[in-house]
Amino acid sequence: MQTQTLLTPRFYTTDFEQMAKYDISLNRSQIEAIVNEFRKDYNQTHFIRDEEFDQAWGQLPASDRQWFQEFLERSCTAEFSGFLLYKELSRRLRNSNPLLAEGFAYMSRDEARHAGFLNKAMADFGVSLDLGFLTKHREYTFFQPRFIFYATYLSEKIGYWRYITIYRHLESHPKWSVYPIFKFFEKWCQDENRHGDFFAAILKAKPEWLTGWGSELWCQFFLLSVFATMYLNDLQRKDFYQLIGLDARAFDIHVIRKTNESSARLFPVVLDVDHVDFFHLMDNCACAYQQWRETKNPFALAKVCIYLLRLYLIKPVKTQALWNTVK
To answer: Does 137 fall in a domain?
Structure first.
């Protein structure tokens, strides 16, 4: 069982009474279209283990098994966290907003499949997560509905870019595909993409959450939070990415750029990832965080905060200006 750290996948809760009053009338048609996509359940028969899993995975070197176990455990925890949140939202909104409740029910279905598939994969390495124990004993972080939508939209979109990038890399370089779970990532990431689209449609029903300086500050904050969390996590786990033929830093830079581009279709601002100091500051932040993990020196943690503040103070890119340049 992984120990709790600043960057451990978290479980979330929200103000369900406020969520029940959420008015989707301004974008109901788009939400209905996405829920209809969920109904089709494209991946109903996708997550089925085949003969490739029937090997003695204990033969992998102990260090390799350790990195795989940690990757699977963190991924399973994150997917199960989404399942719990979406399931509870579906239950609480059933009477007040049946369309949203149906959408959340389908997303909880998808996340349950992902978590179950990952948990079975962990058994190949002699470990498993007690998901019932996690349900009862994990601490829950409270976010207001607005912030839940920002955070989950980004987590689903960044999940898409992570999964599809790994899949395409291993499709081009099959010698690095050392475990069969990765071949499931192409359709898996489509679930993540549809989930992100659902949250985007919900946010569009509240234009005031996507306009004005206040929204710009919050969007910038959540973008940086999600990007920095991934970057700091992955640079601590370079050996796992090396195991599948990827450079962790290059992988994260690519995923951040792509997620930033996707977010520009929704958010009023995105981060200036092309700024000369952006990834330099991210590297410094990762080094300071590693120093804090090893020493628990509060000065190192203070440096992490300073680097994050400097990243936040880099002037963001207005998305209208961004798409004008793309055109």
So the answer is: yes
Torsion of CA 316, 229, 144, 272, to 10 degrees: 10
Rounded Cα distance between 190 and 200, Å, is 15
- Give how many domains the chain has, as a whole number: 1
The CA–CA distances, whole Å, from 212 to 26, 63, 124 equal 18, 49, 50
Give the Cα separation of 136 and 301 in Å (integer): 31
What span, in angstroms and rounded, lies between the C-alpha atoms of 290 and 272?
Answer: 25
pLDDT of 323 reads 47
CA distance linking residue 237 with residue 5, whole number of Å: 15
pLDDT of residue 135: 66
Residue 295 resides in a domain: no
Q: Identify whether 28 is part of a domain.
A: yes
Q: Indicate the residue type of 33.
A: A
The residue segments making up the domain with residue 176 are 11-43+62-199
Give the list of residues 6+ apart from residue 116 with CB closer than 8 angstroms, or none.
47
How far is C-alpha 324 from the geometric centre of its chain's CA atoms? Answer: 28
Please give the pLDDT value at position 137.
64
Residues of the chain with pLDDT under 50: 1-7, 321-323, 325-327
